[in-house]
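Forum > Structural Biology > Help requests

Title: Can anyone predict the 3D structure of Glycosyltransferase 2-like domain-containing protein?

Hi all, first post here. I have the sequence for Glycosyltransferase 2-like domain-containing protein but no way to get a structure on my laptop. I'd be grateful if someone could post the structure tokens.
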Amino acid sequence: MTVAVNTQFSIIIAANNEEDYIGPCLDAVLAQDPEAGVLEVIVAANACTDRTEDIVTGYLPRFTARGWQLTCLHLDPPGKVGALNAGDRAAIGAMRAYLDADVICDPALIGQLRAALSSERPLYATGTLVVTPARSWITRAYAKFWQQLPFVKGGAVGAGLFAVNGAGRALWGDFPEVISDDTFVRLNFPPDQRIEVPAAYHWPMIEGWFGLVKVRRRQDAGVREIYDLYPHLAANEAKVGLGRKELVSLALRYPVSFAVYVGVALNVRARPAPAGWTRGR
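Reply #1:
Sure, ran it for you. Structure tokens for Glycosyltransferase 2-like domain-containing protein below:
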């Protein structure tokens, strides 16, 4: 007997008060190339007190016209992890993408992710990360240096967008209560099972000095938390370090960006991360 393969592609968007971002995010999803296939989009709206849910509902006719399913989950409890798990429970696709509500996908992205994930072995995929031009000069300077780091240039970072196939999603159960869900998922896959497709997605950094310090502090704490709770996943990190010669070269090429990046890093080390989730922008 032939068993039908689930080729449905589900996109899960955790959203908390995203009225300024969810519309452009959904517009970009609707603009995907035909290679994206049939999509199911689930917006897990958690503890929203703005117009996020009304905006999502307004997109229903456009998704229906394309033959796609759009669902908006109303969730009273706040929290991204709970929203991700609720979205997972509602999703029917074997392939799943987890998309931040402030991310804009290029038209070819979902089709390329679908093609990359069409395998029976566990796979993780993301697009080519492009930092959205910031309003503040300090964030622009930080982002310029950050994008030159080996970890970022090495690809498959997955900040703001990551996707897995059915075999990949089977590697863990519910999303755990951790700070960095993207790090947790990425480290479930060794480097040879992580793919970066050419199509881009546009991801905003938080604006300003204090925002950068706050978010960077939480990001570092999130990575340490994963290493502490799941030490076996550390072997999958495979980060390439920044050597002294390369560091000096980057500092000479981008002196202002280097100074901002180092300043943020030193401030992060000065104080531990506070409790609670911090938005990435």
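The chain has a mean pLDDT of 93. The CA atoms of residues 124 and 164 lie 5 Å apart.
Shout if anything looks off.
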